[in-house]
Design goal:
about 40% helix; 2 domains; alpha/beta; about 220 residues
Length: about 220
């Protein structure tokens, strides 16, 4: 599954930067620029996490989260703000904020904070490998998704696809495939590899997985 994030931020450039970055990590983002828009979005939709700027039009971020908490909404929230005084920091936590990151901030640090909160509240965070605009691999659950739709793929298919995507553009030898798909206690079945390759070609197209004669395969998507 992908996690749904509401981002309240009135700086257009930062808002777009956050969306682009989080989309790369398979988050589904809803963008709002005012406190009023944020409340309307939260009352109409369900989110897994809020990213809340404090200094925004109409209703500030502190008041937004306060209203949500009073309505019974316990969705975790991270304040993103230029405020750096102890009083503001304390106020944010007392209103029900789960974390607080000061501008300017590193995007990777923000991602780590988000994952830490989601791990605590959801039990685990899915780890994704993006293939292209349509397809992505959920590494935690070993699943292939087209958009938000899970595709039917057996475990060996998945493991082979993961190997091909991870090394895309490079030739994956038959020996590499054997070592990745079978442990030392299992019997290697060369015929099965051809079946797995054909299964993947049905999804991604014959031209995507190139057969390097007598050597192996190359993923070119």
């Amino acid at each position: 599954m992908s996690y749904r994030v509401l981002i309240l931020e009135d700086n257009t450039l930062l808002l777009q930067t956050l969306e682009d970055f989080l989309l790369e990590h398979a988050f589904i983002c809803t963008l709002v620029k005012s406190g009023k828009e944020a409340l309307e979005a939260c009352y109409q939709n369900s989110f897994d996490l809020y990213l809340v700027d404090v200094k925004v039009p109409d209703i500030n971020g502190f008041e937004v989260l306060n209203a949500l908490r009073h309505s019974g909404d316990r969705t975790p929230a991270i304040f993103i703000t230029s405020l750096n005084d102890q009083e503001s920091l304390t106020k944010g936590f007392l209103l029900g904020g789960d974390d607080y990151i000061k501008k300017p901030f590193d995007l990777q640090e923000l991602l780590l904070r988000m994952k830490a909160i989601l791990t605590r509240t959801k039990g685990f965070v899915d780890d994704w490998l993006i293939i292209d605009d349509e397809y992505k691999l959920n590494l935690a659950r070993k699943r292939l998704f087209k958009g938000n739709v899970e595709l039917d793929l057996n475990l060996k298919d998945f493991e082979l696809l993961y190997l091909l995507v991870k090394e895309r553009g490079h030739v994956i030898t038959k020996e590499m495939i054997h070592n990745h798909l079978w442990n030392s206690c299992e019997e290697i079945n060369e015929g099965s590899v051809r079946v797995y390759i054909n299964n993947l070609k049905k999804i991604f197209g014959k031209e995507t997985i190139v057969n390097i004669r007598s050597i192996g395969y190359r993923f070119e998507k």
